[in-house]
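Issue 218. Parser rejects a valid record. Input:
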Amino acid sequence: MYKIPDSFNSLESGSAARGRGPLMRGFEDADAMVAALEPSYPVYCLRPHVLAENARRFIEGFPGRVMYAVKCNPHPAVLHHLFEAGIEHFDTASLPEIAQVREAHPAAETYFMHPVKSRAALLSAAEVYDVRHYVIDHAEELTKILEAVGRRDIAVLVRLSTPGGNALFELSAKFGAPPAEAAELLRAVHEAGLETGLAFHVGSQCGEPAAWRTALDLAAQVIGAAGVPIHYLDVGGGFPAAYANHAVPPLEDFFAVIRDGLRDMPIGPDCIVMCEPGRAMVADAMSLVVQIQLRKGNALYINDGIFHSLSEPAVADVQLPARLIRPGGDVAPGMTDFTIFGPTCDSTDVLPHAIALPADAGEGDWIELGQIGAYSNSMATRFNGFSSETFVSVEAPAFLPVQGA
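Output the parser choked on:
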């Protein structure tokens, strides 16, 4: 049986409590954590109550089944709190992700949503973890599944290529079958005796609800051309978070457009509609506390950077809210824009946006960076020997940008 690497369960305590969720220290807020620990290392501050609230919004607002995209933040505590909040379905892209979810939460259901999979991974997913849902965008991938899985009580969803719609990352350039080919694949899945499904993804951090309507209209044409029953319709992820430099409509606007578009879909009442949010589920549920190690003029050198927790600001050009923490010390009036450098020897290890902090910020002060829950710890490397591994829980509200600032 595939075993989870120990690194998945390593927390500050060094272990996870199976069945009770991972152990971690709790604090009222980041200030209390800094006062208690005085950390010289980066610290992730997880907000379980924000995870629960985000899960509730999706479960109550989305017209169908809600899967969480594990790749966005696979920390055991994140998965635990989402599962406790009612998220029982998980979008997984690899055998380690499937193993992590199923071994920690045997009652959860995982979906092998990567369009390209190895035969060994398919075999283990089916035999060890009883995975029943798979995605393809090419005929040879269907042949691979039929030969490697060797069972017919499964569902295969065809991923459709759709037009981009104001998304930070357009995803159809890599995955997705053109409409005519998608219709042929649906017929092939049906003829193989499998449950059929259609899936699409409008792009990561998509700020345009109409993109889902465009994709649904295209999906309706493909379903009509295929002429086979559709058991699953996956409208993908892409639901955005509201960053300071990326204003987006309320989440409920996206649900309303999807709900309206479903009325015209040629699917029966037994078709299961699904979505796979990642960023919108977890971005606001975690902040990061870093420490300033040196000040050079208006440049600050901190102990985390773009090769570790802060790749999203560099890759996706998202601007994170920031504030200074100095327990028991007075802060000078006035704010200064600082350039922020990470800890590695690489000159590209610098945040793309200046951060406004009190003018006397300097060595030994801490900075809390908000909205770090998406694509932070999941993207971190150990480049130059630096790493960010400590997690605590905090009761404070989500650390969000000041409206109108």
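Fixed in the parser; the record now loads. The domain at 50-282 is CATH 3.20.20.10 (TIM Barrel).
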